[in-house]
Amino acid sequence: MTGEGLYLDGVTVVFDGFRALNTLSLLVAPGELRAVIGPNGAGKTTMMDVITGKTRPVSGIARFDGHDLTRMEESVIANLGIGRKFQKPTVFDALTVFENLELALKAPRGPVACLRWRLSGAARSAIERTAEQVGLAERASDPAGRLSHGQRQWLEIGMLLMQDPKLVLVDEPVAGMTDHETAETARLLVGIAGERSVVVVEHDLDFVRALGCRVTVLHEGTMLSEGSIDHVQADPRVVEVYLGR
Ligand code: ADP
User: Ligand 1 centre from 205 Cα, in Å?
Assistant: First the structure.
């Protein structure tokens, strides 16, 4: 049970005596797309923080591909191939889509490598492939500042992909998007899973339904229900604490 993929078992996080996570267990297989939903304060952000090493649990196991995440620095965890996309995009408006993707490829190599950087044919192909994958191939030469809100979110997902992560954590990607952008985002995330695991925290249940994946419902820091969207939406415990409010 501690081999490939993401494995949380009995994870407990305490803030000033309050249990933000309370014996949370979660298993996400390599290549799996998983949605995590739950009311405000359920512990979704804290769960992501444990996975990226930002927050340390007081007890429980958190492993990725067999590595113990509870003992590692954030930078070491990032090097394991875990990438996180926060809600607010951090793209560079003055740079083009292509340049943003190029920066995401070269920046983690450090300042010296950046100064010596020359765009190779292989790097160009990787950037073009990613631009295509996130639906921005036609916008590659446009400054990121001219993109719509949704397109900026996709660019940031593309920037994460430039690091070829094994696990992508995505925080509320469709907040503020149009219906069309929301549908495209579902398509994009389904497309990038398979090659890597993707965990999406989201409030929008129509979007979660469009993902067509297994859903984990958190409540009071623990797993309340898990299964298809139909299964969890019909679960009386979920209806009571979340959907029925
Ligand atoms: P969600 O992302 O599902 O809304 P969070 O993980 O942000 O939930 O929060 C879970 C609970 O932990 C909330 O009650 C929140 O107030 C509390 N919490 C989160 N971070 C801290 C912190 N740094 N200090 C104290 N309490 C916190």
Answer: 21
Nearest CA to ligand 1 atom 22: 15
Over residues 54-103, the pLDDT tens digits come to: 999 999 999 999 999 999 999 899 889 999 987 676 899 999 999 999 99
The string over 32-46, giving b where at least 16 C-beta atoms fall within 10 Å of a residue's C-beta and e elsewhere, is bbbbbbbbeebbbbb
Nearest to 79 by CA among 67, 92, 61: 67
- Residue 45 CA to ligand 1 centre (angstroms): 7
SS3 184: helix
Which residue's structure tokens are 């921005």?
136
* pLDDT tens per residue, range 12-64: 999 999 999 999 999 999 999 999 999 999 999 999 999 999 999 999 999 99
107 by DSSP, 3-state: which? helix
Of all helices (H) and strands (E), which one includes residue 41?
none
